[in-house]
């Protein structure tokens, strides 16, 4: 064999070996290959829903609640920012759509003893969501925890001059025509009315719906808000994530159940019960004494973590009819009880200011690690009832 032919053979051999070694390194080494290899994008159903491949390994952590999903899903969620949607809980609005797919949910009384939800979405897609209802000032404080310019979807809001003026505060924060997604300003197709979804005779205020993809698409195309803002700043530069842990082993799980909550005395249709399922290590929600279902799939709503926070509730005294507008002292510190792994952890919550994260500590003052999965914050007045039967 001539020297030139031998040289060519050697070059080919070295190329094959180096190529194989590079592939093995980048595909099998954690933290290397996944940064260079983009996963196959999800598909869309005939109704426009995002469909992920459930057979892919769940290796990626959702920053909002610690749940694990596929690389395909992470590549998708990293193209947008957290989205908070106001969902009502009036008797005539049940069953709601999309609550079971939220990463985090906040529940507090909106007015007249009727609770309302702020459902926060980032790592999951849901269509439809609703019924969507109006903004309240304390929910603005909670959605403000989700980084720079979190998206906030609602239908109007309290606007009486004074401390409960949610729409005035949205303008003050610089959210108007930016990260604020008010149905009054946006309209169809990001929002639409469905008079048939909850049955004949449903009042108009219980018929407004939306979808996460429609809202994220609107924010990108009309407001230049994706995972970065119009100046290129990533939403999570100031976001403070909670610490998460895996579920406790079967032998280490408690049996505390059910957790019973009363927001206002006598308003039984808004009493909440969370019944612990030891086998799945989840809490199943009852709303007004009956299983709370998500209309999208007919399944009972569950949570991995139920966080009960007691806060001073007061009337806004802003001259609004019957003094219905409320305030919650959600800055500062107060008592908290965290339910997870079938156990009850007594502790405290603290929040420095509007944009600061609400932190959770145990009785020793140490930060609490939450379970991976849905976090449900229950905000009760100081005189509210929290009991474990």
Under the CATH scheme, the architecture of the largest domain is: 3-Layer(bba) Sandwich
The side-by-side strand order for the widest beta sheet comes to: 9-8-5-7-6-25-18-21-22-23
What is the SS-derived class? alpha+beta
Number of strands: 26
Q: Supply the CATH superfamily name of the largest domain.
A: YerB-like
Oligomer: single chain
> Helix segment count?
7
Q: Classify the fold: give the CATH topology of the largest domain.
A: YerB-like fold
The first-level CATH class of the largest domain is given as Alpha Beta
Quick overview:
The chain is of the alpha+beta class and 389 residues long.
Describe this structure in words.
This protein has 389 residues and is of the alpha+beta class. It folds into 2 domains: 77-237, YerB-like fold; 248-388, YerB-like (YerB-like fold, 3-Layer(bba) Sandwich), CATH 3.50.90. Helices cover 17% and strands 29% of the residues. The chain is built from 7 helices and 26 strands. It has helices at residues 3-28, 33-36, 71-77, 137-143, 166-172, 183-186, 212-223, and strands at 43-44, 50-51, 60-61, 68-69, 83-88, 104-111, 114-121, 151-154, 180-182, 191-193, 208-210, 244-245, 259-262, 272-277, 282-287, 290-291, 302-303, 305-311, 313-315, 326-328, 332-340, 343-351, 359-362, 370-371, 375-381, 385-388. The strands form 7 sheets. A 10-stranded mixed sheet has the order 9-8-5-7-6-25-18-21-22-23, sandwiched between helices. Strand 21 (332-340) and strand 22 form a beta hairpin. The longest helix is centred in the first third of the chain and has 26 residues, at 3-28. The chain starts with a helix and ends with a strand. Residues 5-17 and 19-36 have low confidence and may be disordered.
């Amino acid at each position: 064999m001539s020297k030139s032919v031998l040289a060519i053979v050697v070059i080919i051999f070295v190329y094959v070996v180096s190529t194989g070694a590079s592939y093995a390194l980048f595909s099998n080494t954690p933290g290397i290959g996944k940064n260079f290899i983009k996963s196959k994008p999800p598909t869309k159903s005939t109704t426009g829903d995002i469909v992920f491949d459930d057979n892919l390994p769940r290796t990626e952590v959702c920053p909002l609640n610690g749940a694990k999903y596929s690389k395909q899903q992470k590549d998708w969620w990293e193209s947008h920012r957290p989205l908070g949607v106001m969902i009502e809980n009036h008797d005539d609005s049940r069953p709601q759509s999309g609550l079971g797919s939220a990463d985090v949910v906040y529940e507090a009384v909106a007015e007249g003893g009727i609770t309302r939800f702020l459902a926060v979405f980032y790592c999951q897609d849901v269509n439809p969501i609703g019924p969507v209802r109006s903004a309240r000032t304390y929910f603005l404080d909670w959605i403000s925890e989700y980084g720079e310019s979190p998206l906030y979807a609602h239908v109007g809001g309290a606007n009486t001059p004074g401390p409960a003026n949610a729409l005035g505060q949205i303008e003050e924060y610089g959210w108007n025509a930016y990260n604020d997604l008010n149905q009054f300003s946006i309209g169809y197709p990001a929002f639409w009315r469905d008079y048939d979804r909850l049955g004949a005779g449903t009042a108009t205020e219980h018929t407004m719906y939306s979808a996460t993809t429609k809202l994220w698409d609107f924010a990108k195309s009309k407001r230049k808000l994706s995972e970065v803002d119009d100046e290129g700043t990533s939403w999570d530069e100031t976001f403070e994530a909670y610490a998460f842990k895996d579920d406790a082993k079967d032998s280490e799980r408690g049996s505390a159940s059910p957790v019973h909550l009363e927001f206002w005395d006598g308003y039984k249709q808004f009493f909440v019960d969370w019944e612990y399922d030891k086998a799945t290590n989840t809490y199943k929600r009852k709303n007004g004494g009956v299983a709370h279902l998500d209309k999208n799939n007919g399944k009972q709503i569950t949570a991995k973590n139920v966080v009960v926070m007691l806060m001073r509730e007061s009337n806004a005294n802003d001259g609004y009819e019957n003094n219905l507008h409320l305030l919650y002292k959600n800055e500062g510190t107060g008592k908290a009880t965290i339910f997870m792994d079938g156990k009850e952890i007594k502790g405290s919550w603290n929040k420095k200011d509007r944009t600061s994260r609400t932190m959770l500590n145990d009785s020793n003052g140490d930060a609490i690690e939450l379970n991976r999965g849905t976090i449900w914050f229950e905000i009760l007045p100081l005189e509210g009832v929290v009991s474990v039967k």
